[in-house]
Structure formats: C-alpha cells, structure tokens
Design the sequence.
C-alpha cells in the first residue's frame, strides 16, 4: 500500500459488513452527474483493501489536500456532496480528514447534514478550507443534536466572531465533544463567551484558541471559568497578546486548578515577571500540570532560571519548552544541570546543552507540543513523539 494513502486505524470495533466504497462512489457520481475526483476514488480504493475494513474496524479516511508526494485533486463542494452520500452507510468510517481542500459554506451544508444523520464519526478535520460564518453556523447547529463526534478541527477557516459565537453556544448544549480547535479563525471578541461556556461544559478536555487576539480581559474571564471547570486538560493560548500582567491570572489559577495538564503559551509576551508568576505557582502549589510551553515570550535569564528552579521542587512538571527566549549562561547552566541530573529528559524539552571554551550554551531541538500541527504525513504515520508531545502527555489528542 502506498504509505501516502495509509489509513489511520482506531481500535474500536464496529459490527458491520463493509461495502465497496470506491464502487459506491463511482455509482453516486454517475447518479448525481458529477465528475469523479480521482484522489477521492484512490483513497476509497485503498480503504477497500484495508484489513481493518474487512475486519469491520473503525478507520479514518485521509483526504487531505496538502499532500506533496502524490497527485492531489482537492475536494470541492460537489465532491463532498458525493462523499457524504457514500459515507452515510459506511458505519466503519470513524474519522474523516478533509484539511487543506476548497470547501465553502455550500459544501459544508452536506457535511452538516451528514453529522446530523451519522452516528459513528468520531473525528472530523476541516482545517484550512474556505468555510465562513454561515458554514460555522451549519456545523455548530448540527452538533446540537450529534452525540458521537469527539474531535473537531476548524483551524484556519475565517468564520469570524459571529461564527465563534455559534460554537460557544453549541458547547453549552453538546455534551459529547472532547476536543475543539478554533485557532486562526479570525476571532477577536469571543473569548469571554467561550469562557462562559467552560463554566457549564463538562465534556471538553482539549481547547485550542491560537491567534484569537486574546488580551487581559479574555485571560481573566478564561481563568474565572476554569475555577469552575473540572474537565479541561489541554489549553492552547499560543500566538495571542498575553502579557506579564495577564499571566498573574494564570498563576493564580494554577494554584488551585487540579485538571490542567498542558498549557501552551507559545508566542506571547509574558517576559521575566510572567515566568516568575508561573514558576511560583508551579513550585509551591500546582502538582497537576505536566507540560508548559513558553517558547518566544521575551523571557530573559531571571525568568527562565526561576522556571528551572520550580522543576527541582515540582516533580510532576516533566515537559518544558523555552526556545526563542533570551538565554544567558545562567540559563544554559540551569537547564544543562536539569538534563544531566536526569530531572529533565532530553526528549521532553526543545533545548540541548553543549560546551565551547568552557562555557555552556543551548542548541535548539525539533521538539515541542505540536511541531507538526499543520503538517500532513507524507511518509506514513507520525512516530516522532518528541516533536508531538501533546499526543502522548495527556492522551487527549488521537489525531494530528
């Protein structure tokens, strides 16, 4: 089997006799007078050959439009209409990856109808299509009644603030969805509403709010909500406008929160003071957080050394990512000592010490919580856990 078309497998068994997907697809194209999408047909053909289909195990169809090693014909609105019709009876298909295609709100209508009628799909990836506000409304409304979807990625679709509101409202009703990504969706004013949702929602364990223009009020409201939330384990606030003063709210939260295991603050501006707020909470109070990313936060020696010292006290914090800040020799020495002492494992951080002329320095490693977040595997499944640590830390991310 060509690894570029390899199908992800879930262990969940579905009692069903699998149909001939490719043949059904070609017949449906003919019935709807739609031309065949050769890429879709090829993926379905490979799925038909899969042992897991023959054994009626759940599979994920990967029809990602950003594959670079094989001829890709990106999925259109018309293509997804045919695909949804075919998959409505394919109960063994538990995941659908349609990232980096050219779906618009027109095509999303078919996806939404499929979600309302389907009872086996667990994972849906729609990242970086051309879905707008009305498409977001359709998907959110479908999830008011859907009781099986666990993981939804809307990353990179320009749904706007109104679209974000639809998802915030949906999460007050839906009690099944566990993982939601609304990163880079042109949202600026919805953080407060998402925070209100978190006060009531008890199913969500992973939330990505990357590039939301989050500032002080948004951080404050999120933290207030998380005092009441007992389910969220992975919070991604990367690429926002969070400052050292805003991190006070997160520091206070970490003193009491007993569920968060991963906190991603990559590409904010928390500086030394913010790092010290976090280090104090982690050293003296919190014993739940396992992973912290403060990559590219304009932190200098004082703040980074404080974080290293907190790891000597807090044995639960095992993963820390610091590259892109301002290292001096004190920082290099502090993290070198953590690594050499075995307190910080080399595959649990993004720096590696080396020595030149008696002075310790830090080199960058290609490690992180989600280094391959926007990446489609071209050579088979991802097996570099050090580069995608969030997949293993809290066991809440089954798919990239």
Sequence:
């Amino acid at each position: 089997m060509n690894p570029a078309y390899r199908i992800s497998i879930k262990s969940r068994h579905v009692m069903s006799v699998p149909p001939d997907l490719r043949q059904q697809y070609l017949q449906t194209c003919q019935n709807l007078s739609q031309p065949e999408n050769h890429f879709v047909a090829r993926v379905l053909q490979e799925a038909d050959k899969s042992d897991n289909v023959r054994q009626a195990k759940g599979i994920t169809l990967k029809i990602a439009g950003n594959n670079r090693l094989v001829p890709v014909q990106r999925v259109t609105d018309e293509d997804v209409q045919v695909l949804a019709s075919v998959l409505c009876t394919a109960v063994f298909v538990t995941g659908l990856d349609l990232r980096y295609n050219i779906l618009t709100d027109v095509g999303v209508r078919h996806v939404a109808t499929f979600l309302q009628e389907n009872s086996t799909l667990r994972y849906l990836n729609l990242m970086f299509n051309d879905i707008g506000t009305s498409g977001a409304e359709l998907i959110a409304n479908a999830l008011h009644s859907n009781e099986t979807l666990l993981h939804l990625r809307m990353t990179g679709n320009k749904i706007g603030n109104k679209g974000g509101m639809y998802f915030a409202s949906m999460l007050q009703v839906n009690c099944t969805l566990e993982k939601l990504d609304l990163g880079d969706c042109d949202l600026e004013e919805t953080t407060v509403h998402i925070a209100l949702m978190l006060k009531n929602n008890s199913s969500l364990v992973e939330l990505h709010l990357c590039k939301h223009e989050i500032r002080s009020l948004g951080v404050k409201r999120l933290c207030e909500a998380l005092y009441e939330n007992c389910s969220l384990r992975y919070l991604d606030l990367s690429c926002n406008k969070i400052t050292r003063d805003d991190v006070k709210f997160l520091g206070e939260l970490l003193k009491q929160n007993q569920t968060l295991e991963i906190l991603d603050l990559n590409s904010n501006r928390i500086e030394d003071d913010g790092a010290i707020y976090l280090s104090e909470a982690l050293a003296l109070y919190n014993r739940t957080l396992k992973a912290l990313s403060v990559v590219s936060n304009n932190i200098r020696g004082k703040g980074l050394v404080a974080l290293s010292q907190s790891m000597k006290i807090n044995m639960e914090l095992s993963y820390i990512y610091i590259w892109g800040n301002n290292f001096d020799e004190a920082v290099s020495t502090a993290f070198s000592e953590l690594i050499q002492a075995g307190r910080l494992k080399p595959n649990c951080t993004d720096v590696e010490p080396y020595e030149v002329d008696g002075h310790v320095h830090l080199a960058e490693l290609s490690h992180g919580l989600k280094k391959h977040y926007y990446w489609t595997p071209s050579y088979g499944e991802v097996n570099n856990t050090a580069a995608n640590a969030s997949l293993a830390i809290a066991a809440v991310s089954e798919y990239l």
In short: The chain has a mean pLDDT of 90. DSSP finds 14 helices and 13 strands in the chain.
